[in-house]
Amino acid sequence: MKSCRDIAIVGAGIAGSIAALELADRGNRIVLYDAGAEPLTAASLVNEGKIHLGFVYGGDSSGLTARRMIDGALQFRSIVCRWMAQDLFASSVTQPFDYAVPEGSQLSAGAVEQHFVLVQDILRERLAAPNADYLGEVDLPAFRRLTSHSYGSEAGKIEAAFGTPERSVDTRAIAASLRAAVLSHPRIEFRSNHRVTRFETSRSGWHVVGEHRADEGPFDRVLNAAWEQRRFLDHASGFADDAPWFLRYKMAVLLPDVVEDLANVTLMLGRYGDVVRYESGRVYLSWYPSMMLASTRDLLLPHPEITSSRKSEIVRSSVVALAAYYPKLAEFLRFPEMDEAPLIGGVIDARGASDIDDRVSDLHKRSRIGPSLLADGYCSLDPGKYTTAPMFALEAADALASSSRVHQVIAS
Fold first, then answer.
1. CB-based contacts of 95: which residues, under 8 Å, 6+ apart?
2. Which of 132, 211, 212, 247 could make an S-S bridge to 74, C-beta 3.0–4.6 Å?
């Protein structure tokens, strides 16, 4: 007997959850599968929450990545706040970011400034559109070269620093609101702890095959919104992607908010790191050389095991290394709580054949992202970044709603 459930969605991160909410609000019946116990407990919860305007993508001189990021950023608040209270969202927004350019960066300070001018021009153009806003703001200050700043030391010299209007959001607050919306929606059935291995099709529709369970279905349509296993599921379901992809297992540490007047800063461009302070009392710190723990060009990347002693070594060495470029961070080393700070993170999957230390790596570009309708009723969603995930979730919902032929909804 045919199931009365219309659409199966695999992956309950921010993209899969918003797609489920959108399609359910349109009257569809949704079954949302995830390997976790609840929605939004993996990558969508443990990233830095930066809502990119394209400043960090100086490696893409075409401006395509900046345009992609800006388009997603200017829709982020309006989409998320369909299921999150406006005041809660506003309280999740951080202070603006600085960008510091170390000596030895892949881009000189002059080249970074030239890229920032391009980003600023695109941003002004996009903000002129009706109903466009950046996290609730429409009159954004221009970036500026900082004549005085607290970055750099003899061990980590800084060529220049810039102030920008770019901000992060607290991913925990957003995850909590979207999670509650998913779990309370009458047309969404959430299937927890369900690891899907492939999709199959038959005359009656699409079937979802689990790791240790019989297939479920048939469904009229399916959306593959998995994160680290998305390409594996596509491949196992008969949709191979021969393009080069690069998987990385990258960590960060959540430190207590014990250092006063801490700025949000990203070092660019290359194997550096960033610092984000949230109003909720947490500080996110990442240092690429010691926190990028594994990589592969295969379909899947096994998670490395991290002992408690190794964890402490990673945290302490990362703080020391980043403090060479932002000396104020050395104050964390005085607090014993630092050794108990949690490591967070996971797999990042992106187009590219080499790591970010390669100046021409495609990891410096994020324009070929979004939903792809690979067969009638089968959509695969690469959200690209947290910034663009809500925008692409709605595009995926539109693609499934009108799926009648094979096409790809990605930038060329």
1. 167, 263, 264, 277
2. 132
